[in-house]
Design goal:
- The complex is a heterodimer.
- Chain A is of the alpha/beta class.
- Chain A is built from 6 helices and 4 strands; from the N terminus they run E-H-E-H-E-H-H-E-H-H.
- Chain A has one domain.
- Chain A is about 45% helix and about 10% strand.
- In chain A, strand 1, helix 1 and strand 2 form a beta-alpha-beta unit.
- Chain B is globular.
- The two termini of chain B are about 30 Å apart.
- Chain B is α+β, with helices and mostly antiparallel strands.
- The chains are: A alpha/beta, B alpha+beta.
């Protein structure tokens, strides 16, 4: 029987976007103890939030809902910096301003785990798939609902696993200083 | 469980029997070591409150289950009581009477109406008007051999049940009209002779388009068959043939555009004397029925007891989303 959702991953896109598969596979593979996961089919719940400004408006609702479930429920927000935000700090500030206007306290806002792609998740995935990406332009968009569903499903998993491997290499110091091959 | 109580209380079934409707054995509660299951049913009818209690014992091995205790009260006053020694009740004249009874039979289904309190009859009728359905279109019979007084659990005898009402003109008019809300091209129903005592249900469609003709019930899709069944249930509720209906997963097989109209048409009928209990996970039903009407049943794991609580939905989430996340119980 399904367990309670412990991690809500609010992300850009719609139900058929690539993000939700990538996010779920990646978090399951990482198995982060710091966000108190729990075994079960439904402990990670990706929630598509539309475009980035929709995501900002949705955050306060999801944060309150998570808070109502107790301290062992975490809200993660996955978004792209795109080319209009200089870095993650600027994007987080934009999220905070919308949340503050909707009555969210700073202390509650700070419980949100943000994951930002520079510039876009599509580029991130393209890099993991091919080893190269041009962040000056958006990487190829991927949908689940197309003729290449099966193949794309597989390379998504591969991309998630590659990312996991890179994270582990970096944390163990074997990936050097990061360098040009590892996205910031 | 409700079906078991109804079938025993109406005398349709006995414990341990081999008949089609009999209850061959009980499923004991996995998390309880007790061999006696105790059931209590509170219900109102004709403006009075009734409590019906039934204790059934089942031990492992070849012994058949038996009723060890049974009682009924009306407005707190005892109507009758039974134990392993027999049934005891008071006649209208005030005289105390009793009779021995087979442990496999429920007393409520065995007491003859003559001379007893009319409240016993009211209770008998109220329980007989419990309709418990788990629609399974793939089990629905293509033709009927005889009339059926009430639908069975899977609605497999739908045509036989329809056959019972076919000669009631008012019923035969009302039923297609209710279904026309979702099938505007439906014209009428008809029973065709297809053999000795065998009848098949035929639906006439009169569309604005080119085709105007008949389809046998068996030619309908699973969803369409289920929908016919659901509207028969609401018609039965509307006409007083049922007082309480319990439908397990009415959304199975039914298309989304047809589901909400059915739930709304059902809700139109509900009042102090007509009740509906729907068991569903479907977001459309949860939202349409209204979360304030909802109760949530859950088990923490496979060896835990089933629990019942109010449907608590965090602000900003739909009931369906909250259930998906397991967040409906605080």
């Amino acid at each position: 029987m399904p367990s309670r959702t412990r991690i809500v991953c609010l992300h850009e896109g719609r139900n058929d976007s690539v993000d939700r598969t990538f996010i779920k596979v990646l978090i399951e593979a990482l198995g982060p103890k710091w966000i108190r996961p729990e075994d079960g089919s439904n402990s990670i719940r990706p929630v598509p939030g539309g475009n980035r400004s929709d995501l900002m408006k949705r955050l306060p609702v999801e944060l309150r809902a998570c808070a109502s479930q107790g301290a062992d429920t975490t809200l993660m927000v996955w978004a792209d910096c795109d080319d209009d935000m200089s870095d993650g700090d600027a994007l987080m500030k934009a999220f905070w301003e919308v949340a503050r206007d909707q009555g969210i306290a700073r202390g509650d806002f700070d419980t949100v785990v943000f994951v930002f792609a520079k510039d876009r998740l599509e580029n991130w995935i393209q890099f993991l798939e091919t080893g190269a990406t041009d962040e000056g332009k958006e990487g190829p968009r991927v949908k689940h609902l197309n003729k290449r569903l099966w193949r794309r499903g597989h390379w998504l998993l591969d991309a998630s696993r590659k990312h996991l491997a890179l994270c582990r290499l970096r944390s163990s110091g074997h990936a050097g200083t990061g360098g040009s091959w590892l996205p910031a | 469980m409700l079906k078991l109580i109804r079938d025993l209380a109406t005398g349709d079934a006995v414990l341990g029997g081999d008949g089609e409707r009999d209850i061959k054995g009980l499923e004991l509660t996995t998390w309880l070591p007790d061999k006696v299951q105790e059931f209590e049913l509170d219900l109102s009818a004709n403006g009075k409150w009734f409590k019906y209690r039934l204790h059934i014992e089942q031990v492992p091995g070849d012994l058949k289950p038996r009723i060890t205790f049974e009682s009924a009260t009306c407005q707190g006053a005892e109507l009758y009581t039974r134990d392993l020694d027999g049934v005891r009740f008071r006649k209208r004249s005030g005289e105390q009477k009793g009779f021995p009874l087979d442990w496999r039979q429920a007393a409520l289904g065995s007491i003859e109406p003559r001379g007893i309190s009319p409240d016993v009859v009211t209770l008998q009728q109220a329980i007989s008007k419990l309709m418990i359905i788990r629609p399974s279109p793939r089990d629905m019979e293509p033709e009927s051999r005889a009339e059926a007084a009430r639908p069975d659990l899977f609605l497999s005898n739908l045509t036989s049940w329809y056959r019972r009402f076919a000669n009631d003109l008012e019923w035969a008019n009302q039923f297609p009209r209710s279904l026309q809300r979702v099938w505007p091209d439906l014209h009428s129903f008809r029973l065709d002779d297809v053999g000795i005592n065998a009848k098949a249900l035929r639906l006439r469609f009169a569309a604005k388009g080119t085709w105007d003709g008949f389809l046998y019930f068996d030619q309908l899709s699973d969803g369409e068959k289920a929908l016919v069944g659901l509207y028969m249930i609401t018609t039965a509720l509307d006409r007083g043939d049922a007082q309480t209906i319990l439908v397990d997963e009415p959304d199975n097989f039914v298309g989304l555009p047809e589901l909400q109209p059915w739930v709304l048409s059902l809700m139109e009928l509900l009042d102090e004397s007509r009740q509906a209990i729907l068991i569903s996970h479907h977001p459309e039903i949860l939202e349409t029925a209204g979360r304030s009407n909802g109760q949530y049943i859950w088990r923490d794991d496979h060896s835990s007891p089933a629990r019942l609580g109010p449907l608590i939905v965090p602000e900003g989430l739909s009931a369906g989303e909250a259930i998906t996340r397991g967040w409906v119980r605080a």
